[in-house]
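So, can you check this one?
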Amino acid sequence: MEKIHVSASGSYDILIEDGILEKTGAYLKDIIKGRKAVLVTDDIVDGLYSGKVSKSLEEAGFQVLKFVIPNGEASKNAGNFIKLLEYAAENKVSRADVMVALGGGVVGDLTGFAAASFLRGIAFVQLPTTLLAAVDSSVGGKTAIDLVAGKNLVGAFYQPKLVLCDITTFNTLPEEIFADGMAEVIKYGAIVDKELWDWLKEPLGHDEIEKIVARCVSIKRDVVEKDEFDTGLRQILNFGHTIGHSIETLSNYTISHGKAVAIGMSLASAISVQNGFCKDALLVDEMNGMLTRHKLPINTEFDAVSLIEPIRSDKKGDGAGVNLILLEKIGQYIIKKVSFDDICDMLSKVIKERV
């Protein structure tokens, strides 16, 4: 087992172990005073893992209340948020009880925001079942839902009580969903960890995946502990995301988060070189090679003018521009405040070069 402790506004452990889902109840009974557990999941994960998690919770003395949403980003909306709150209220869930997020990032974000809001805050626990959720969205306390104007525009910083990561759940992931998670792993290597980047050049077996998850979680833990509320250092985790979120929004979420971030990282790398922030002309080739190695896209059909509109709604913008996370080299980031007009010009140049 790998155990990583996070000390933020709420302190908690992240436990990484094969088969740990079957121990969910045993871990929760000591940290949750109430005995109602709202298990939130999606209609795919429900058939795979809800049974064993529910059994574990029931054996530990919890009454399990299950709330299931359709799989996909489109479910991370205000309608499902309100339905989940109403469901908890109808079942007389108390402040002593817990919400349990079983699934990927959509389930985790929705559940966390509902937990932060219901009764002004009840406990929640993350059980990530995708690589992306394990290395990124389940850790750090960002919770949110999407609006028509853009992704994650309504939410709260709210830390979980516990994160249990069962690596065996990755065995049931379709190849393209696993690849989505690799986009976030590549991000960590690109911005701060050249050694991790080099690991990704080799074939990945089970032991390597567990090591990579632990490394990524440790990196994110270190960043979150220094800047929990995303006012400075934590923005480096947004590498590829400013452009990626725009691609997601414009595609009406038919392009997944991981694929959109991959395209965003490719374009951000090109911007880094083209504007002299990175002196290594081979950076773009190295980034694109890594992304394609892990079956991720590098190009978008959207033009710069289209991409800039959702970027204007970016959470980290100030009305005049936004901080772009760029690269000086692999393993070393740079933060640049750029106006929306300049971002549009930069994007236009790098996209035209690819036509």
Observations:
- The mean pLDDT is 96.
